[in-house]
Amino acid sequence: MDTSGNSAFPPVPNPASSFRLPVILSVVLGLVTLAVIVGLCVYVARRMKLSIVTEPVQPKPSPVIKFWEADAPTMQKFFLKLAQENPVRFTAQQLCTFTENYNTMLGRGGFGSVYKGQFPNGVEIAVKVLNRGPNKSIEEQFMAEVGTIGRTHHINLVRLYGFCYDQFMSALVYEFMENGSLDKHLFSDNKKLEWDKLHQIAIGTAKGIAYLHEECKQRIIHYDIKPGNVLLDENFAPKVADFGLAKLCNREDTHVTLTGYRGTPGYIAPEFMLKNFPITYKCDVYSFGILLFEIIGRRKNTNVAGNSDSLDWFPKQVWEDFEKGKLMQLTEACGIEEKDRAAAERMALVALWCAQDSPDMRPPMSAVVKMLEGGVEIVPPPKPFRYLFAVGNDVVRAGSGSGTGSGSTTSGGTNSYWYKETTPVMAKYEITVASV
Asked: Where in the cell is it found (predicted)?
């Protein structure tokens, strides 16, 4: 054996070192694989987050609604409102239900009875049940009311909701007026209405009649203007009612042909008393003038004195006080406060113009409204009531104007026959409207 270290055989390799290399390679390969997997996961996660943030969420498809289905509720309301503009024909059973078997009576007269009722939606109504009889007067009254007020829509006219007509019943369904008729407030002992409210009632009533005469497609003559036919709502706004005597006529007609007279004694125009005298829409103007006298005095136009042969006719007293220049004292005697006496004096002048004997001398209701509102200076009226002293066509025609009363000139310029276009300021500085 050679102990010098120079052996003839090569060195034997160490088994531990040969085993270490594959282990390192496998570890490195695992780490690389893990890194690739983690990188892929991070990449995928970022892509998913980006898609969630930037891509909008698509809503679920909703059922398609056709445009006529979408507008159906609106159109239904429109058609319902359209139907409500015209009178509805009710059955007798419906009216019995509305009035709870006619439980509450509001009033009774020669025409029939009026009952309070209510529609299912809570709207209060007044049902006027007309008396049936052998004559045709009730039937004519029914047709007159439906044929006239049924085609009008104005804030100062009572509204007709509908009617009932069958073999047993004739009835009219009106809006309910909370404060009843004007006569109950004028002629009662407990006079609660202040003058300003009465003044507004006069103006509103005039506007309602002006609409009937001048704004409807066919002129409507009421024939029975009086405080009992002026109804007051919850705010005491006036509405002209009771068109049982009303008549339609063309605007071109200068007069209408009537047999007998229409209206209530005390309010009837003098032309009704004269044989073969033409009747015009100005008969309503006369009746309105008498109504104004009653508002000023808060009393009926005629009172019977202690002697039954002596009549206390208030319109005649107003004229006599006007002639003496004592209208202001008259208004004071009627209990009108100082702040309201100028308006009351103006109303007295309007009443004297409306009550002229000649229909041509009476102003149209549109002029009456202007005079009552106070924006014009009223021309002093001529003497009315001449028919009381001498009845005849010549007397009634005396003093009449051209027929329309418009276009006449006065000392104040080119104004209407009954008033001057002026204002308090213009009057103060003596300014007049220029003539053309």
From this structure: Membrane
